[in-house]
Each structure stands twice: as C-alpha cells, then as structure tokens.
Amino acid sequence: MSPLTSLKELQNANLIDVDAAETLRPVADRYAISLTPTVADLIDRANSADPIARQYLPTTAELLRLPEERDDPIGDGPHSPVPGIVHRYPDRVLLKAVHVCPVYCRFCFRREMVGPSGDGTMGAAALKRAIDYIAGRPEIWEVIITGGDPLILSPRRLTEIMVAIGAIAHVKIVRFHSRVPVTDPDRIDDGLLAALKASGKTVYVALHANHSRELTEAAKDAIDRLIASDVTMVSQSVLLRGVNDDADVLADLMRRFVELRVKPYYLHHPDLAPGTSHFRLGIGEGRAIVSALRTKVSGLCMPHYILDIPGGHGKVSLAQSPVTETAEGCYSVEDRLGRVHAYRDSD
C-alpha cells in the first residue's frame, strides 16, 4: 500500500474529519505530509491524545511560528563546505544523501528542507563532490548518512554510495540515521541489507523511535535482520510534550530498545524548528524527567540527554551532574534517590 500524503487520504483513512481537513489546508500547503500504512495502523483513532498520532498527523499549531524558531535550527548551513556535507566536528561528517522520508514527523528539525518540494536526492555530480571532500580529509573517521531518511534510497543507489565510501581508507565507520525499521519495516530486505554491507566498513544504524508502541513485532523482525547482517544498532529519540514527556513512558521505550538489542544513545531536547513550540518542554522539565528516568532503569537503558545548541555550535549534554565540589578534594555526591553523600579524594 502507498503512504498517505494528502488531507483527503487522511480523511479517507478516518484519521481526520471533514472539518479538520479544511482547517488544515494551510498546514498541508506549508509542510509535507506522509504516513506509511504501518504508522497509520498504529494510531488509536479513539484517543484524541494518541502519542503516535501526535507525531505524524498535522495540526494547526504548526502555523504558529515563534521569534526564536529558525529554518535551520541546528545550524547545518555554516558547516556545509560543499552541498550535502556538514562538517561540524573534526572526525566525522554528515552526508545528506536524500531529503525525502517515508513519513514526515511534525516536529522535524529539517522540515524546511525535506519533502517533495525540498532539496531532493543528491545527484551524481553532487555525490562525487561530497565523496571527494571526504576522501581529501584524512581526519574523517566516520560518515553519518542522513537526510531525509537514507534507507528510503534504492539498494542500487545505496550500493553506489557505500562502494564509494568503501574506497576511502581513513573512513572506518558508516552510520545511518533512520526511522524505516519502525515506519516501513518491509523495506529492510535482502537487497537493502546487501547494500549496507557493500562498503566493507563497520556499519551502525541509529533508529529513531519516540514511543514503545512504535517498536512492533514487524519492527523487531526488521531490527533482527539488520543485526544478523552485522549492523550495530543504537537509538535516538526526541523528548516531546504529549508523546514521551513522562519518566514511565520513557522507561518503557528504553527498555524495549534494549530488549531488541538497540542500545539507547541520544535523547534529544527538541530543536527550535518552525511551528513546533507545542512539542517543546523547558530544559528544567526535561532534566527532571531524565533524573526520574535514572531512578527507574538500568544503566543499559540510559540515553544521553542532549541539546543541539542553536546556530551550529554542536551538541552538549543536558544531564545534571550529581557531583558538587565543596572544598579542594572534597565533594558532595547525590545518589539516584536524592540522598547526598560526602566524598574525599585520596591524599
């Protein structure tokens, strides 16, 4: 089945009503819509606060743009020496191979660039220039293929990219950021798996999911196929109001990742993307939730809670330090239950 990409199709699938379709027309004109049948089937149509629906169905709240919101909230542009490359950190680059996704998240930080009218797929000349950039800089150890969602590319196209990267000796790691294993799990087939292995490099997939209900049996099967093909899996999630802004909900999500052999990696504080203020929490709220999460789960389940500093200044940890220096060599240390203990360095 094809994805749902219009208000009429959402209406026909009983995901919005007639009145909503008319009200949402300015949103659909502004931002891309797409839900795969897998995602549509997950939505609880009887629950107006369904956390799956909130991630994927358009709302009029997206028309509100606050002064602090930015078209490029994490500042990719200033760090893009050639089209398709973002080189913000010395030893790794982003390769933005495609700006199309199987689904369009309503909180997407690249929403001004993705979609049918976005920046499209990288052409042959642009890809060669990007590969030449990577090949000419021996400090680049890791290539992170992103977009858009790179796993929407055909196996032939993915193979071309991976073979090109495979010829660069100083690149050791290739990482993909994707929602495909949860939103379109049947796409993880033999052809795609062969493409992922074509570079001969160590391959990681960072799987984006924000609620445990997204990690279905079909998603599990896709993850199993990836791991059986020597792909290492890590997670990334976004802390979203109305979706997972609760320590118990996050605990369910992180435990489910670990059960599926996906190591929790990043929990992103939401970015200042246009029309996304209804998803954002304050940093203080986020820290409180993550502190509560730490009291509930194993260390295996704890992600890094991070902020991408607006303007392109990189990621920083938002985790609160449990250690306070009280005098030279002396510290107070707060445990997971909030009790404070004294600690002294050895002389």
- Give the low-pLDDT segments: none
**What spatial form do the alpha-carbon principal axes imply?**
globular
Task: Find the count of extended strands (DSSP E, 2+ residues).
Answer: 12
**Span from first to last CA?**
69 Å
The secondary-structure class comes to alpha/beta
Supply Rg: 21 Å
Strand content: 15-25%
List the helices and strands in order. HHHHHEEHEHEHHEHEHEHEEEEE
- Most strands sheet: 9 strands, mixed
**What is the residue-averaged pLDDT?**
94
Number of helices, counting only DSSP H or I runs of 4 residues or more: 12
Features:
single chain, 347 residues, alpha/beta, nine-stranded mixed beta sheet, three-stranded antiparallel beta sheet, 29% helix
General description of the model:
This protein has 347 residues and is α/β, with parallel strands linked by helices. The protein has twelve helices and twelve strands. The longest helix has 13 residues, at 247-259. The mean pLDDT is 94.
Q: How is the topology of this model organized?
A:
Elements (H helix, E strand, L loop, with lengths): L6 H6 L5 H6 L1 H6 L6 H6 L8 H6 L28 E5 L2 E5 L27 H12 L6 E5 L8 H12 L6 E6 L1 H4 L6 H7 L5 E7 L8 H12 L2 E8 L8 H13 L3 E6 L14 H12 L9 E5 L6 E3 L5 E5 L2 E5 L5 E5 L3
Parallel strand pairs: 2-3, 3-4, 4-5, 5-6, 6-7, 7-8
Antiparallel strand pairs: 1-2, 8-9, 10-11, 11-12
